Structures are given as C-alpha cells and as structure tokens.
Amino acid sequence: MTKIALVGAGGKMGCRLTDNFLKYDHYDVSYLEVAERGIQNLAERGVTVTTQEAAIPDADVVILALPDVALGHLSAQIIPQMKAGALVLTLDPAAPLDGVIAHRDDLGYVIAHPCHPSVFNWEPTETAFRDFYGGISAKQSIVVALMYGTEAHYELGEKVAQDMYAPIKDTYRITLEQMATLEPAMVETLAQTCMEIVKEGYDRIVEKGVPADAAREFVLGHLRIQIAVLFKEVNGTFSDAAYKISKRAKPILFKEGWEKIFEMDDIREQVRDITNK
C-alpha cells in the first residue's frame, strides 16, 4: 500500500484532493494541515490531521498542496525528513521552475497539474457539467512532468495524479518548461487577462444601458462560437466583417511584441512574481 502525506490537505486544492483520496483503499494517506480553517474543513470530512514528524519520514509520496509563496520555506522543513527514494509531488510548475523547492539527489520530483474540464466537455448530467474545476464528476485531462528522478518516480507520480484528479480523460507527459509555458504564460498571463478585459467590457456596456441579461447571453454565446471556430471544434469560419474588425482591433488592444510572454526568460520572470511574497 502506497503511503502518502498530503501537506496542506485542508486548503482549497487540498480539500479537492482529500475528497478523492477518501474514495480509495489502496493508499494509506496522512493529512497534514496547520491552519484553523483547514483543520475545520478536514473535520467536516471526518478526517483527523497528522503531524509532520509522524507522517513525512514513512511516506512514499509527499504531496505539497501549498501556496506558491510558501513552498520554498516549507519544503526546506519537510524534504529533509523524507526517506531516501521517496517522491515529492507538486501541483504547479511555478515554484519548481523558480528553483525554490528544497532539493535532494536521493528523491524524485514530479509535477502534475489539471487541465480542468474543457468548455466542450460533454457530461451526461447537469451536476457533472457544472463541475467546472474537475476532480468530482466531470472528466478532465492532466499534464505531468518529471523534474528529477527515475522513470519509476514518474510512473508513481502519474498514477497518484490520475487518482487524485479523477475522473481522467487523457494524461500528457510534458517537460517542466512546457508546463510553465502553459501556466502561467498561456492560461493566466494571456487567456485570463484577455477574459478579464472581456468582463470589463461587459460591465462597461451594462453601465451604458444594455440589459445585463441580454448582454450576458450575447457575449457568452458568441464566445462559445468563437472558441469553437478557432480551435476547430466546428468546420466553420467567421464572417468577412468579423475578420475585418478583428484585424483593425488587434493593434489597438495589443502592443507589438506581446508574444514575448512565451519566451523562457519572460516566463521565469512570471513565475518569480508568483513565488515571491
């Protein structure tokens, strides 16, 4: 039976992982949490917290479900206590890429991150469809990277990740650098920022008198079509007028050279902003 120490088990991500681990009997999981609210979250699930000293030395896998800004100093306390050959499993590429996680040559290091259910994910029930984050009832894919260690470390990390993020659609093995290109660069620096601007535009037109419900339906309906066309979910195109107005708008909305966010030097600056307090 694989022994797992889930550090930060009562946090937002930690609770999602805890809910899934409670479904399995092939893991011996110790739940670590120090925040009062987190301990309460676990108690509501019938989970008792374990001390670091009791759980870490025997764990085959230590999962660091911790905020990026805390990973550096907390990993410096946790990783020295791990047994040789064990696996460190982190959930985000920022801290690993920034080099702030404590390193030991006799451990394995794997990063696993959820893709979250696609906007085109088909689910048979309304409940599953509204599992927007995934990990409950909606299928999602995951990306997994081996930062350091052996193929056995990767295989163990991948299996644990598939269980803790289940139900899984596909698993993609990529590098740490590729994962950081996806997040933060692609989905946070670019996509989230663009969506925030779209929402600000929505708020602006509502302030100008467009009925909020009408604006919401109009914007979200068109977004779905636009995503479907651009990502080839449908065999369609935009109208000539739409292409003309988009060409006009790009230099107004985006300054020249914005693509540098995908260069590794800039990505390292992005993750440094994430990991620094």
Folded structure, characterized:
- It contains 11 helices and 7 strands.
- With 277 residues, the chain is of the alpha/beta class.
- The chain folds into 2 domains: 2-174, Rossmann fold, CATH 3.40.50.720; 181-275.
- Helix 1 links the parallel strand 1 and strand 2 (27-32).
- The two termini are 38 Å apart.
Unreliable runs: none
Coarse structural class: alpha/beta
Rg over CA atoms:
21 Å
N-to-C order of helices and strands = EHEHHEHEHEHEHEHHHH
* Helical residue percent band: 40-55%
> Can you tell me the CATH architecture of the largest domain?
3-Layer(aba) Sandwich
Our count of domains comes out at: 2
Q: Report strand %.
A: 15-25%
Cross-sheet strand order for the largest sheet: 2-1-3-4-5-6-7
Give the overall pLDDT as a whole number: 96
CATH superfamily of the largest domain: NAD(P)-binding Rossmann-like Domain
N/C terminus separation: 38 Å
Give a quick account of the main beta sheet: strands, pairing sense, barrel closure.
7 strands, mixed
Which key features would you list for this structure?
277 residues, alpha/beta, Rossmann fold, 7 strands, globular
Topology:
Layout: E1 2-7, H1 12-21, E2 27-32, H2 36-43, H3 52-55, E3 61-64, H4 68-78, E4 87-90, H5 94-98, E5 108-114, H6 126-129, E6 140-148, H7 151-164, E7 168-173, H8 176-207, H9 212-230, H10 240-253, H11 264-275
Parallel strand pairs: 1-2, 1-3, 3-4, 4-5, 6-7
Antiparallel strand pairs: 5-6
Helix pairs in contact: 8-9, 8-11
